[in-house]
Amino acid sequence: MGAQALQQRKKVILDVDTGSDDAIAIMLAALSPELDVLGITVTWGNRPVGNCVENTLRVLGLLGKENEIPVYKGCPQPMVRYLTKQRNGALEKDGISVWKDGKEFSIHPAYLDLPPAKIKARASHACSYLVETLLRAEDKITIIPVGPPTNLAMAIRMEPSIITRMEEVVFMGGAVGMGNITPCAEANFYHDPEAAKIIIDSGVPCRIIGLNATHSAELDLEDAASLRALKTPAARLAASLLEMRIEALGVMGDGNGHSDAVHDALAVASVIMPEVITDMRRSRCDIDVNGGAADGQLIVDTRIRHEKDGLPNIQVAYKADKEMFFGLLCDRLGCCHTKI
Ligand code: RIB
Ligand code: CA
Known about the structure:
Elements: H1 3-8, E1 10-16, H2 20-30, E2 35-42, H3 49-63, E3 71-73, E4 97-100, E5 103-106, H4 126-136, E6 141-145, H5 150-158, E7 166-172, H6 187-191, H7 193-201, E8 206-209, H8 211-215, E9 219-220, H9 221-229, H10 233-251, E10 259-260, H11 263-272, E11 277-287, E12 298-301, E13 314-320, H12 322-333
Parallel strand pairs: 1-2, 1-6, 2-3, 6-7, 7-8, 8-13
Antiparallel strand pairs: 4-5, 9-10, 11-12, 11-13
């Protein structure tokens, strides 16, 4: 890569709760020359934060990039969610794993089936790393939260001026008119709705890659076979994770037994190649933080187009191009490192 191309690489920080689809997102980001992955901050979510850190390091180890991309452990729980007593979780569905015939089927195993990490996370806390990196950066940085967005919201509370240092925030979170963890809410925003609201209300430019877009670009078992046929460690891991998700959802009585969304990887893909999102609309948005049936719901004001007043800077994705997304995944996960 030439000096000019290197300079033009978009500087990003991923914020993950690894996680099967997080693992694919990390590989896509780390193997894409358009992105300069400055660091990965880790939060709680799919599993406790310690597991998510270990899984993140395992994925980087598979790519031989564990000494190149620093990993920082972040918050172990949401900002304030569990202080609100009426949040009884009555409508909540734990979709992570089920047991059948003595076997666990999980869309996010406690530990990814990879060799244990050889190194540990860096000593700084993820929130301190975010604040310090954003304050000292010459270029603006894009933050990609694909778990509960606790770390970034905490960093904004610690040092609000970091808002001006972000190019944009590209979330995997939320949904319009649907949910996965409750009928109304997507898991990442549901798990820390105050954090999502703090970021969205901060004025930082945001793109929301939610369930509408991710489910419009589901990958299926044939896609998994095509990935496996690429014979690289990254593509083989992505194939196994996709198959694992589809099988687990089938056992849970969820999904269609044939395909599933790879949510977090689509958020990363949209930073590399914005045209992968084929229906993006700009709206005023809010997050329900009232603790009732709609807790954590992304509220999108579809009544008015706000293009003129310049106020709302939230872009919401409704649809993605599956072929473009899958082509990008194959291209990046299928080359750039040793075949086995
Ligand atoms: O709702 C999908 C999101 O929840 C993804 O980020 C997945 O990894 C889980 O965290
Ligand atoms: Ca995630």
